[in-house]
Amino acid sequence: MSDILPFLKSLINASGLSGHEFPVADLIQKQWSPLVDEISQSRLGSIHGLKKGSAKLSPRPLALIATHMDAIGLMVTRIVDGFLYITNIGGIDSRVLPGTPVTVHASGSGEELYGVIAMPPANLLPDGEGGGVVALKYLMVDTGLTPGEVVKRVHIGDRVSFGTEPLDMPGGTISGHTLDNRASVAALTLCLEELRSKSHLWDVMALASVREETSFGGAYTSTVQIRPTIAVAVDMTFGQGTGSSGYQTFPLGKGVTLGIGPSVHPFLYKRFKEVAERIEIPIADDLMPEYSSTDADAMQLVAEGIPTMVVSIPQRYMHTPVELVAIKDIQRAGRLLAEFIASLEADFIERIVWE
Amino acid sequence: MLSIGQSQIKLLEKLCNAMSVSGDEGEVRRIVLEEVKPYADEVKVDALGSVLVRRKGAGRKPLRVQVDAHMDEVGFMIVHDDDNGFYQFQVVGGIDERHLVGKQVIVGKDHAVGVIGAKPIHLTTYEERLYTIDVDAMRIDLGPEGKATVGDRATFATKFKRVGPSIMSKAIDDRIGVAILIDLLKHAPKHIELCLSFSVQEEIGLRGAKVAGYYFKPDLAIAVDSTPARDLPDYEGRENYTYNTKLGLGPAIYTAHAPIISDPRLVKFLEETAIKNKIPYQFRQPGGGGTNAGAIQEAHAGVPVVSVSVPHRYTHSPISVSRVDDWKNTLNLLLCALNDMTPALLKR
Prior knowledge:
The structure holds two protein chains of two kinds. The two termini of chain A are about 40 Å apart. In chain A, strand 1 (about 40) and strand 2 form a beta hairpin. Chain A contains eight helices and 18 strands. Chain A is an alpha+beta fold. Chain A has two domains: about 5-70 and about 180-345, Zn peptidases (Aminopeptidase, 3-Layer(aba) Sandwich); about 75-160, Beta Barrel (Elongation Factor Tu (Ef-tu), domain 3), CATH 2.40.30. Chain B is α+β, with helices and mostly antiparallel strands. Chain B folds into two domains: about 5-75 and about 160-345, Zn peptidases (Aminopeptidase, 3-Layer(aba) Sandwich), CATH 3.40.630.10; about 75-155, CATH 2.40.30.40. The relative contact order of chain B is 0.19. The interface between A and B is large, with 66 and 63 residues.
């Protein structure tokens, strides 16, 4: 298995907020091209990488593996004295923002500007707004440039990404922003690499989807276009860590999780579990009583319905600038996906018998 | 007039990226010792760890001037090992706890990377998000196999950046003062005895400077520090009249900061020096917040003191912002002042 860390770091450093995924999409397309037979981009910008199977069937059954490539972030709402007021793209707890380094994607000049999120002192805010948590609408980005230099470069609506550097931590973990869900893109890349030396009957469509964090709109529309036989969403799940414990959370570095709930087809779950046990990849059940909050929720409802599955990698501090993932779990997810695909018989779907 | 060149930027970068939490200033001390040795007549590390440097003056009894900058920064101490890479920590110095969650930190002598995590937004309630997170509930997470030792110091991991007219770093307060002192030593005028204190433990009660002032027994002293610029817009568009200082307006001269009144002769002299040399300057708005001038003024029978600061935004946070021009103008104002200084200054 190749060292995925350099590619993962380049993925994190490439911008790609929901609805503006082009930079990271280009990177993924380049990485996947030699690993697949056909590669294309959807109308909304998702990447489709098709690797053909060997079953002598027409049409061949197709497994869609979806990893969203978009990231949460911020957007400029107004500019006052060179300071940028901001709003959120996707779910962000404003308590993690003060003092965070950011990258401003300045559309006026095409530059990427470094900046920091400033928390104004209480006396510059409306009465009662500055003592405790300062709401997002009061926070600002300071680029270190003079007001005149800012207005020449930055426009309202420009995107602002987290600027935290991806850093290696002791014991094979990595810290950084947007590991949700670039870690899964890395896992799917490992899966494609592994499939080069494995025979598989089914066609495989690797999907790097757009707009998961805002609407699931990328995975939904790509699934309509591709019309897969089955679809698997690979995403992040909650890691046990500071402030996070209980049944929704999983230890880091101890394996991947398999979803259980209405977004998950029970026969796909069963097959994933069998494969994981056979190749000795530790797994845990991720309970999703209503929604999975992944692309699976949207893919399931395409056309006459698609059997879906959710595979997740535990991650601490989701949607903060310091998400934390164990590299080992990314490798496990990649291997499990490849082995699952290789295990699919040509008539896997026909053999399903509901009770 | 001196300008700020690449070598000075490089030195400030090295100083800023070092970890030097109050009480454990070894990393910055090593850099300072290396920089000052070629230019000093006497270099000594005192009982608390401050670096004290003397450059002798010409004549029988030259004016003895102490210039101080502090080497320490705010940060954290690891206080408990919770197992599995989680560590409880205590804050060292005045840090607003709202700047802590979601930040990368460096821990211990090897700068091991850790994070101060937060519960994912998905698992929080709206009500929960209305309250700040108590530092007692935070942990430094070094990853499942990460190891630190109780007593290790830690600080923000943010690296120094030069951006347009600005510099950004966790430790501009007061590495910019340290950098200025090193330049003053290199260009010190011959007629005064220049005593530099690169002092420790400023952020936890001006401790290093207190004993450094006693050691040097100067005729007068200048504390070179970095002071908050709260020059941000008011959300409702009202005039911001409590800005303390503003970026870009030059060195901030202190007239008073509780409980210290700057020596009026020194304040006037600095202002005249700035005007004469066409160096921009500003007066810091009188108010709270101390500098080492407060500790030095009470050495022996008393020392006339004044503080001069380079303004920065976002005090004691992961990233402060200063202007290179303010740095340059502060350096030049101090150098011009040292050049023009005579014993007559204190006889008025």
